[in-house]
Amino acid sequence: MSSTTPGSPTFDHTWIAAHIPHSGTMCLLDAVETWSDEAIRCVATSHLEPSNPLRSNGRLAAVCGIEYAAQAMAVHGAVLATQTQRPRAGFLASLRSVEMQVERLDILDGRLIVEAERISGDANNVLYSFTLRCGDRLVMTGRAAVILDASGLGSLGEAAKPNA
After folding, report:
1. What InterPro entries does the database record attribute to this sequence (predicted)?
2. In order of start, what are the domains of the chain with their CATH numbers?
């Protein structure tokens, strides 16, 4: 995978929040560590925050890792988009082979590494595999099918961006 190099854009939390349809505390990722045409690796510490909007009764269930993975997939699409093309909105259509190795994310003591790899796809849909880790500890794996918005109405223009 490629790392960001001098002169290339920095894919930090601010950049991510501006390029995916999640803002404020719902933007869960801190930064992109590495990326290529096929894969992306992001990091997050929001699972440790008491203000995480996905918490219920003060706890963050492991299943919420799916949202972390989905945001990494969205960031991958945004990173790959050209300067003249806005990324198309994607909608999570199905999940397969999801395996969770922990019950809760909020009890993990380090940053999450969120990896997504594009397995296949075309102009209308994409299939990703994803992995979440905390240090060397495997947290979650699975596959996700994403359908891309064909209308263009789901692009990330301010009018379509929730929580803007």
Report:
1. ApeP-like_dehydratase, HotDog_dom_sf
2. 2-148 (3.10.129.10)
